[in-house]
Write a structure and sequence with these properties.
heterodimer, A: alpha/beta, TIM Barrel, eight-stranded parallel β-sheet, 9 helices, 8 strands, 42% helix, globular, B: mainly alpha, 4 helices, extended
Chain lengths: 267, 92
């Protein structure tokens, strides 16, 4: 079945992963800017990273017939030093006109600090200035509930159109908060943290099939680039109708991503 | 939609395996020297939440039991990762 991987960190994956994803039916990969597993020491490091996201990865994906798009930002784990974060944010406009940039992301919070929240709000203003959609990272584990609430409050204060924002890594205790406020929700399929395929399908049963997508968020950690097609298999075992599966893994991502002027499914 | 028997067919053995793993994990902690910490306390609160979820589904109750419920952003991060259970003396 064709599917879209709306959140994957391919800079951390092998070319064999691209091949496996293509064989599994992946047509499009969207890659948010994120933490590399260590803190970069200069804005130039991010400049190189943004070149990798906008030049190198699209070419690597194209070899397997996959379209590659990206989101740009400085991630919240490196936003604790607000001065450094602002230096990095200053170079983002140099890349915004690249043909595969979708919007600003994945921005958000990590440890729910004052500085992270300030830089998050400045990213939101950057997105508003350039009229771009937003992809949001919610914190891990014990920090997720508090961070999600802080993020939703900040977005409401910024008067952002919630239909142009996806709040990612929702779980059972945050999905309702996000969807009830009119935002899109992303479910991340991780082997240990976040949620399993069975739980993701439970959330679809409980919260519905609208304004929601699922992703692998595969990166350098314990993660699985084939998590979405494996969840498709689980959905079949759970007797979900084929058209509903297609909606969740293909139509819904297209609906949200099409709000970016650069996103083209057939281009 | 699958019925209850279908769900049992799909998930009982997996859930049984995980349940025994949890019991063995608690036995392992009992058996070994030293002290537990806030994670053990959070784990036990989560187990209680699962058995007594109140008005919310069990998974939500467990996640909420393992969450930081403070409301204000903290002044500064002291770590980049997370533990899986709230450690309020670090967060606040």
């Amino acid at each position: 079945m064709p599917y879209i991987e709306p959140h994957a960190h391919m800079v951390s994956r092998t070319t064999a992963d691209y091949e496996a994803m293509a064989i599994a039916g992946c047509e499009v990969i969207c890659e948010p800017a994120f933490w590399a597993g260590f803190d970069r020491s200069s804005p130039q490091g991010f400049h190189d990273y943004y070149r990798q996201l906008t030049e190198y990865e699209p070419a690597r994906a194209a070899k397997f017939g996959i379209k590659h798009y990206c989101w740009l930002c400085i991630n919240p784990k490196e936003a604790e030093d607000a001065g450094f974060a602002r230096e990095v944010m200053a170079i983002i406009p140099d890349f915004i006109d690249a043909p595969t940039v979708l919007g600003i992301g994945e921005i958000g919070l990590n440890k729910n600090t004052i500085s992270e929240l300030k830089i998050f709000e400045e990213h939101v203003e950057l997105a508003k200035k350039y009229d771009l959609p937003i992809l949001i990272h919610t914190p891990h584990l014990e920090d997720k509930l508090k961070g999600t609430k802080l993020i939703l409050d900040a977005l409401k204060n910024a008067n952002v159109d919630p239909s142009r924002v996806i709040v990612d890594h929702v779980e059972e205790h945050t999905a309702g908060l996000v969807l009830d406020a009119g935002f899109w929700a992303g479910m991340t399929l991780y082997p240990e943290s976040k949620c399993t395929p069975a739980r993701a399908i439970d959330m679809l049963e409980n919260f519905g099939m609208e304004n929601i997508w699922m992703n692998s968020a595969c990166d350098w950690g314990v993660s699985d680039p084939l998590a979405v097609p494996k969840c498709i298999q689980e959905m079949k075992k759970r007797q979900l109708a084929k058209d509903l599966v297609h909606k969740v893994v293909y139509e819904n991502p297209i609906k949200f991503l099409s709000q970016s002027k650069n996103f083209k499914i057939d281009g | 939609m699958p019925n209850k028997e279908d769900i049992l067919d799909l998930y009982f053995m997996d859930a049984r395996c995980k349940l025994i793993d949890i019991a063995a994990f608690l036995d392992r902690l009992d058996r070994h020297e030293g002290n537990t910490d806030f994670r053990y306390e959070g784990f036990n609160q989560a187990l209680n939440a699962m058995q007594n979820p109140g008005a919310v589904p069990r998974a939500q109750a467990v996640l909420e039991a393992l969450s930081d419920h403070s409301e204000e952003p903290i002044p500064k991060a002291t770590i980049q990762g997370a533990f899986g259970a709230p450690r309020l003396e670090i967060n606040n």
